[in-house]
């Protein structure tokens, strides 16, 4: 490819609304172009990256036995009504009326349509297992689209769906995909982690996110540096402390803490470590009758150590809270504790509440909590002596660096990541409402067990850039670079030798199947180098008159601090060897 | 590929709503699946055809110097308001409101968006010419979607747009595309014609349709068997007759023709050839004031030979009619001719009308037309003697078989076709309202000259099938077949030799880059053969125990009446040679 026949379009400055590095660099490198809020054109340079990503995904999906099809972007609402998602999804589901006033949606995913195909096509146990996937445009009407293609409204996703005859087979299909995803992400050449994720109401451990590691990532990834353990923050378990509860050494004392309503303030005032304090969070669950009216409300007090944060997913799994909880209203708090939030605690509540203690709080002694009276805290609090043992002890908190790893192989570390893939066991969540059944050996209809497997195709370039860039621009891994090699001739117009050498190298590399671009635009060296460093082509060869006179060209990897001189005769082999590395 | 790992899904009967052969066969062969009216899933078998078509289109577009990008499916209305198409397009333009009540459309094409990109990116004459294309999902909310993917609502189109500095350069860019399209259609392996088409208001001859020949095609294609001349019916010129007008031999006579209001009925009654009659068509043009009120109406009488049909495009080019015409109302007809339609003619009109005679009518003598009195015609009519020469003589009619070819190289023939491609010179139709300008050498802004070039990717398989099928199913050309070769082992379960031979041939062909499918489903021979004949795989190899004992396999092309025995050792080379043919 010659640059003059391509569309190289770089910008010195990123637009003002580009907040993150990947968005800024993709705009500056001419990879994407904004058409509207959260809607982007993939410019030629960016599309080359997308196609390589799609190619890798397709190859590995096919290798894993998945079969590609293409489901429509615009789907009749009736399928979405069958599963109830037409009603339950919020405005992020883009709804359309056609000329006959019939309801349609623009697909955000395709569970309904693929399940409809399965219930028609997969009639017998002999046709299972089966995995169907497509790589297709999707739309999610985000309230606040941002970060470029990282959180856009129109996007491309690879979504695969597996259909199995039973749970055992479904788990095997899940594992095939989990393995294929590792192969895919390995090929991308990005640092990533497959992290255990919460599988929601379905239960089990069959949910993993594929996170591209990046300091700017939205998600916290918990991992053990000594083992394979990795989970997202929702999922990572905080083990019960192995040390027993300490003996009580202090007397229960009501202590004045005027104006100090946070654990941090109280700890500072009393000159104790934050770890001695306990924070109180008040939740409520409602019981409703068949008309949906609330007939009974239960108030819950969750206790966490002052330096810990509540994990809502974990709280939502506590028996009794798993029906769906909400934060209590101020009126409910006053009614049950006799005071406003800020000075709450489990001792002397005005009305009975259920006490749920985090595992860590359950082993604390001589702790501090609110006194249920404004401007006062209780100090020297001890379980058993000052209040009954908690109603429930549970893992309620986010893990922190240094917590023991759940696999017992060391302590946990935390880094940040960008979710670009997810494998998930669905069970019969969709097959049940849509009655997707097959006939088993006895001719009896059985519900299919499903799994779903997504990769954010258009999000991936942004994640790759968040991980791989410097002050000069993007640094692509070879596998997904728009071009693997750029040949930069200096003074091509003045020197026939330079022109011929550049063309020869370009042609040789192209004939060898290398994605090479020859910059024949006639730019000056500084501007030319800046463009390709911004675009992030990993391998560069510079050809100059002076170099040729010495029989040498200059090679530089995008990550190299300086160029390496390479004998002109050897440059083809040299570059090929670097590409294969 | 093994059939057991693919999704082979054939039907004995086509659904009732499948009217045409391609729709029936695509449904029966499991190529597509209906999701809603005019909305189809491309099933794995069909998607393989699409991907091959896309691959050929992409290769040839790139070879021709076009650059691929990807414009969004959902586009903000504001761009469409700039060109006025948001207002002027009917309900086939699918309009959407997002969660913030802002207006969007689902793209039916992308002129607006690509012109917006061009006006931002192509600033200088140095960046021109440029051709940008994408292969993307589109939507046209057809009132009555039908014929499967031939006239669906959601479809995939390759649309390319060229940008040039002036008309000369734009014409050169057009020719590059016209040539690339020939290369593309040649590679598809379909019989097609590139036919000249009307270029509408823009004028010039830069509009060609690429029509796949099929007896069931919606379009009539006019061509000269002795030359390259080909045009669609709107465009094909009916030359002025070379013979002079004959002398008058009959007297003008008012003849009773009770109840005979058509030319055919009159010719039969009077026992004269239909070619002696002249039909009268009454049109009207309105002159409006600045408030859009009609201030003046002109009535026109168009005269065509009784056996000829009016061509509205040609009529619309007659000076005076080119402002836009309509058919006259019955009231206007009575007002101007003194009688109702059925007995109209140019003689003795009650009020003056403009007479436009088709070229053929202008040289007629002793002809027959209505007498402007119910149940009477005039016979023996002659120009000059009985009525003045016509106000205008023009080509008003559709050509018919046997008309002289406009290039003077023989006579015209007519066949039917399905339009799957169109190359079109746009001029400044979009660049003008959107102010897409570049700076010329003198630094002056100039409007870009544009062209647009479409290929109906999802329509093409249907067109290919309309052209290539028989009572057993589809017959794909090699280049776009879902699989090039099917290996059918008979009794694979019983015979280890058959299984091994089938697997070996499959593996050899696959290793050689052939798209081969091994039918390992264990179907009985009849059902297996019927499936692959329905799907239309062009090359089949049957492996049986009996054959192997004789050292022979059976090869049969989908068009062959019978199988050919091939020595087992030679079958790989034999099949490869057939594929290359």
UniProtKB/TrEMBL annotation, chains A, B:
It is found in: Cytoplasm. It catalyses: tRNA(Pro) + L-proline + ATP = L-prolyl-tRNA(Pro) + AMP + diphosphate. Pfam families: HGTP_anticodon (PF03129), tRNA-synt_2b (PF00587), tRNA_edit (PF04073). The keyword Glycosyltransferase does not apply. Its main location: cytoplasm. GO terms for molecular function: aminoacyl-tRNA deacylase activity; ATP binding; proline-tRNA ligase activity. Its EC number is 6.1.1.15. One of its GO terms (biological process) is prolyl-tRNA aminoacylation. Keywords: Aminoacyl-tRNA synthetase, ATP-binding, Cytoplasm, Ligase, Nucleotide-binding, Protein biosynthesis. Residues 38-477 form the Aminoacyl-transfer RNA synthetases class-II family profile domain. It is an enzyme of class 6 (ligase). SUPFAM superfamilies: Class II aaRS ABD-related, Class II aaRS and biotin synthetases, YbaK/ProRS associated domain. PROSITE patterns: AA_TRNA_LIGASE_II. NCBIfam families: PRK09194.1, proS_fam_II. PANTHER family: MITOCHONDRIAL RIBOSOME PROTEIN L39/PROLYL-TRNA LIGASE FAMILY MEMBER, PROLINE--TRNA LIGASE. Belongs to the class-II aminoacyl-tRNA synthetase family. ProS type 1 subfamily. Consists of three domains: the N-terminal catalytic domain, the editing domain and the C-terminal anticodon-binding domain. This is Proline--tRNA ligase. The gene is proS.
């Amino acid at each position: 490819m010659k640059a003059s026949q391509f569309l190289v379009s770089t910008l010195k400055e990123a637009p003002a609304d580009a907040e993150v590095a990947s968005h800024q660099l993709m705009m500056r490198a001419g990879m994407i172009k904004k058409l509207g809020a959260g809607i982007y054109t993939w410019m030629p340079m960016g599309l080359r990256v997308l196609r390589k990503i799609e190619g890798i995904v397709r190859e590995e999906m096919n290798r894993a036995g998945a079969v590609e099809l293409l489901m429509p972007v615009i789907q009749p609402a009736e399928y979405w009504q069958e599963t109830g998602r037409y009603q339950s999804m919020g405005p992020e589901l883009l709804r359309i009326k056609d000329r006959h006033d019939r309801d349609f949606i623009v697909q955000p995913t395709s569970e309904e349509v693929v399940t409809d195909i399965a219930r028609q096509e997969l009639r017998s146990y002999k046709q299972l297992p089966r995995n169907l996937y497509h790589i297709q445009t999707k739309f999610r009407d985000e309230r606040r689209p941002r970060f470029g293609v990282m959180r856009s409204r129109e996007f491309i996703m690879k979504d695969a769906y597996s259909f199995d005859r039973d749970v055992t087979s479904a788990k095997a299909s899940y594992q095939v995909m989990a393995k294929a995803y590792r192969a895919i992400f390995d090929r991308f050449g990005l640092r990533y982690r497959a992290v255990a994720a919460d599988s929601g109401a379905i239960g089990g451990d069959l949910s993993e996110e594929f996170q591209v590691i990046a300091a700017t990532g939205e998600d916290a990834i918990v991992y053990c540096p000594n083992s394979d353990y990795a989970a997202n923050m929702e999922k990572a378990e905080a083990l019960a402390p192995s040390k027993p509860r300490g003996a009580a050494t202090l007397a229960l004392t009501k202590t004045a803490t005027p104006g100090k309503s946070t654990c941090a303030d109280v700890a500072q005032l009393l000159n104790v470590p934050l770890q001695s304090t306990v924070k109180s969070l008040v939740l409520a669950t409602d019981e409703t009758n068949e008309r949906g009216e609330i007939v009974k409300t239960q108030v819950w007090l969750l206790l966490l150590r002052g330096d810990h944060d509540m994990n809502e997913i974990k709280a939502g799994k506590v028996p009794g809270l798993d029906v769906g909880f909400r934060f209590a209203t101020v009126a409910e708090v006053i009614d049950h504790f006799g005071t406003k939030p800020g000075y709450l605690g489990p001792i002397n509540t005005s009305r009975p509440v259920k006490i749920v203690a985090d595992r860590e709080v359950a082993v604390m002694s001589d702790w501090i909590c609110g006194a249920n009276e404004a401007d006062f805290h209780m100090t020297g609090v001890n379980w058993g002596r000052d209040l009954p043992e908690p109603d429930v002890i549970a893992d309620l908190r986010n893990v922190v660096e240094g917590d023991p790893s759940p696999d017992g192989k060391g302590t946990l570390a935390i880094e940040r990541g960008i979710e670009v893939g997810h494998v998930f066991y669905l069970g019969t969540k969709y097959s049940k409402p849509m009655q997707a059944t097959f006939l088993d050996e006895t001719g009896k209809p059985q519900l299919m067990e499903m799994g779903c497997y997504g990769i954010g195709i258009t999000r991936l370039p942004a994640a790759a850039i968040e991980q791989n860039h410097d002050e000069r621009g993007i640094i692509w891994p070879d596998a997904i670079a728009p071009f693997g090699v750029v040949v930069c001739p200096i003074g091509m117009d003045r020197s026939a030798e330079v022109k011929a050498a550049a063309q020869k190298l370009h042609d040789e590399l192209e004939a060898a199947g290398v994605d090479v671009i020859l910059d024949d635009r006639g730019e000056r060296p500084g501007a030319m180098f800046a463009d390709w460093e911004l675009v992030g082509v990993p391998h560069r060869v510079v050809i100059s008159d002076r170099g040729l006179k010495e029989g040498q060209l200059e090679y530089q990897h995008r990550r190299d601090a300086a160029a390496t001189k390479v004998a002109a005769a050897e440059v083809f082999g040299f570059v090929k060897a670097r590409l294969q590395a």
